[in-house]
Structures are given as structure tokens and as C-alpha cells.
Amino acid sequence: MLCLSLTPLLVLALGASLGAAFPQDALKKSCSLSKYQFLMPHELKAVQKMKEQFEDTMLLSDRKCNTRLFHRKWNTAELSVPDRVTLVEAELDLAIAMLSLPTTPKFAEARQRPLAFLTQAREDLRGCMGTEAPSSSGKLRHWLQKLQMAKKTETVSCLEASAILHLFQVLNDLRCAALREQCP
């Protein structure tokens, strides 16, 4: 009888000590983004179909943006891995915000799968980021400032066009961040 009442106490004590031995932040260090190294063809086709449908309905005036966010003088491969992750998170935030805007029923259907995929990728990235903010390079800091300025000064249609027309660049940056080593 006495042994049965001690068992739950031992289990609780063991669980508490194991929880302290493996802090939560240690789990972030072992995260893996490897599933984004090689994107599935059906995901790429869904993005391509959505992009084509957007281009078919886009007005010419939407192409004239003052800020060319995705035209950078540097390559993602030049950034450190933490900076790559920060870059991709910012790009995904913009893309998801633009794909979440109200739209026609036909385009809403076409964007469903890419939006779900991009949202999952952003959540996976956030799960890998530590609690402290990584120090970013001057290149990335400048681009992040440019992004914030564009959000304040550009039209929504301009930002939407930029984000959608450059989704394959965002996907390539995601792949580069997932490699965690040298990327092309």
C-alpha cells in the first residue's frame, strides 16, 4: 500500500527534474528547416498558378512602384544564417499580409494553397528563432528599414504586386535559409 502512494510522487519528482534539465530554449537550437531545402512540385505549381492569375488581372499602374523592395544589390547567400532567417521572416510577413487582403473569389481560391504553405513556413521559421534578437548586418538592416518605409509610403496595390510577383524569390530565400550553409 505504501509503495503505491510513493510511485506518483516519484514520477512527479522525476518529471520536474527532467524538465529543468532540458530548458525550452534548448529545443530551438535543434530545429530543422530541412523540409524547405527542396520544395514540393505541387507547392511550386500552386504558387505559379496564383502568380499567373494575378498577372493576368493586374493593372499596369500596379507595376509602377517607387520602392523596388526585391531588387537588392546583394545576394541572400552573403548573409549569415540568422540574418537569412530574419530576412525570410520579413519577406513572408509581407507576402502573407498581401495574400490575406480581400480579393475576388477566383483569386481567393487560387491563393489558398500558397497562403497556407507560406503561413506554415513562417511558423516554422519563428519556431527556430531564439528569444534574443540576432544582430543583423548593415545590408539587412538597410533592407528592413526600406521595407518599413515602403509599408508607410507605397500603395497597398504596389506592395501586393511586389510581394506576389517576387514570391519565387521569397521561396528561394527560404530555401537558402534552410540550407544553413552555403547557398547559391
From TrEMBL:
<comment type="similarity">
    <text>Belongs to the lambda interferon family.</text>
</comment>
<dbReference type="InterPro" id="IPR038326">
    <property type="entry name" value="IFN-lambda_sf"/>
</dbReference>
<keyword id="KW-0964">Secreted</keyword>
<keyword id="KW-0202">Cytokine</keyword>
<dbReference type="GO" id="GO:0007259">
    <property type="term" value="P:cell surface receptor signaling pathway via JAK-STAT"/>
</dbReference>
<dbReference type="GO" id="GO:0005125">
    <property type="term" value="F:cytokine activity"/>
</dbReference>
<dbReference type="InterPro" id="IPR029177">
    <property type="entry name" value="INF_lambda"/>
</dbReference>
<feature type="signal peptide">
    <location>
        <begin position="1"/>
        <end position="21"/>
    </location>
</feature>
<dbReference type="GO" id="GO:0045087">
    <property type="term" value="P:innate immune response"/>
</dbReference>
<protein>
    <submittedName>
        <fullName>IFNL3 protein</fullName>
    </submittedName>
</protein>
<dbReference type="GO" id="GO:0051607">
    <property type="term" value="P:defense response to virus"/>
</dbReference>
<dbReference type="Pfam" id="PF15177">
    <property type="entry name" value="IL28A"/>
</dbReference>
<dbReference type="GO" id="GO:0005615">
    <property type="term" value="C:extracellular space"/>
</dbReference>
<keyword id="KW-0732">Signal</keyword>
<keyword id="KW-0051">Antiviral defense</keyword>
<dbReference type="GO" id="GO:0050778">
    <property type="term" value="P:positive regulation of immune response"/>
</dbReference>
